[in-house]
Amino acid sequence: MTTFETDAPGSGHVVIPLTRLTAFLAAATGPTLTIRKAKEAGAVALTAGRLNASIVPLSVSDLPDIFDLKGLKPVRAFDFGEGVLTHLLDFVAPCISTEETRYYLNGVCLELLDGEVLGVATDGHRLATRSFKTVAPLEAWDRNPIIPRDTISAVRKLAAKAEGRIEFSRRTRTPPHSSF
Q1: What is the rounded CA–CA span in Å between residue 108 and residue 99?
Q2: Which 3 state secondary structure label does DSSP give 115?
Q3: Domains of the chain, CATH where assigned
């Protein structure tokens, strides 16, 4: 969730579908994005340079509570060196299943071993696995999270040649949710 300062009086909430906002910004010509209430009932007007659009936002009440980070409890975390995560993901990503009927194969399973992270992906016909040693000691984990295909795609772009830290958290309430 992104929050930003405005020069308008008062406060409010708006949920703009990411695909529509991204498409608008890709075509935008100006350096400033203006979001205001549109003349049409329930719509939001976007302006950037000469480009104008009217979008019907999502209902704030429909926004999932996954953005409420208060209930998260850290479970596991590990650091990785420059380019290491990308090296792992680039190797296993071609084997991620794209079949909607086999949704449980649509991601990369990360196995956290003693001081090592193992990534595994399969589409039912091909299997790819690659591992790397962690910078600091890592306690083995009895759970193996499956990171969804779309998340892997985003992480590959963000991680590129970077080094960083990955934290797995789990909500303390029922049903349990994981965050990556």
Answers
A1: 14
A2: coil
A3: 18-61 (no CATH), 66-179 (3.10.150.10)
Q: Where are the beta strands (DSSP E) in the chain?
A: 34-37, 44-48, 51-55, 72-80, 107-113, 116-122, 127-133, 146-148, 164-171, 178-179
Q: What is the pLDDT along the chain (180 residues), one digit of tens a residue?
A: 455 555 666 666 777 887 888 888 888 877 788 888 888 877 888 888 888 888 888 777 766 555 455 555 666 777 777 888 888 889 999 999 988 777 778 899 988 888 888 999 999 899 999 998 887 777 777 778 888 888 888 887 777 767 777 777 665 544 444 444
Q: Does the predicted TM-score (pTM) go above 0.90? A: no
**Phi (first) and psi of residue 93, to 5 degrees:** -55, -40
| Residue 53 phi, psi (nearest 5) | -150, 150
User: Using omega within 30 degrees of 0 as the cis cutoff, is the peptide bond preceding 175 cis?
Assistant: yes
Burial, 176: exposed, middle or buried (Cβ in 10 Å; 0-12, 13-18, 19+)? exposed
Distance, CA of 172 to CA of 71 (rounded, Å): 6
The two tokens of residue 9 are 């009086």
Give the HSE-up count for residue 81: Cα atoms under 13 Å, Cβ half-sphere. Answer: 9
